[in-house]
Fold:
Amino acid sequence: MNVMTKPEAGTASIIKPTSLIGGTFVSTDIKRTRRLCENVLNLECVEPAKGKLLVREKGHRPGEKLHGQSYWVLEVEEVPEVLVEQEMLNHWGVAVPSQAAVDEAFEKVSAGQDEYDLGRVQKPRFRHGSYAFYFVDADTNWWEVEYRTPELVYTAIRERGDQA
Structure:
C-alpha cells in the first residue's frame, strides 16, 4: 500500500495517535506575538522557556467550561529572522459565534492595525462555506477570524464522514 493513499477499511495505520495536538510557527518577537494572541485573539499563552511560547484556546483550566477536553497547542519559537514568508493559505484560525462577531472583530482589528504591528487586514466575506476575514501579523503569519453555520462546523462535517 502506498502510504499517501486512503487506507482500506480495517487496515491499521502506521501511527496510532491519541489526538491531534498542535502546530508550530515562528516569531521574531515573542512578546509581540503573545500580546497579539492574548489581546487580539483572546488565546491563553505561557512562556515555558526564553524564546518559546505555547498558545491554546481559553477555558481548559480546572473549573472552566472546557476542562478535561482535548485541545490544540500552537508552539511559537522566536527566531532572529523569518526565512520563509507565509502565505494566506497557510493560516491559523479562530472561530467566533456569529457573522456579526466577525464584523465586530474586523472593525477592532482594523482599528488596532498599527498598535499590533499588523500587515494587511482583508475585509470580511463569504468563502468556502463560511464568513471570515484574514489578517497578517508582523512575522508573515496569517490569521483567520471565521463564523461557520452549525452544519458547517468541523464537528458536523466530520460526523457526515466520507462521501467518496
Observations:
- The domain at 20-82 is CATH 3.10.180.10 (2,3-Dihydroxybiphenyl 1,2-Dioxygenase; domain 1).
- The chain is about 20% helix and 30% strand.
- The chain has two domains: 20-82, 84-164.
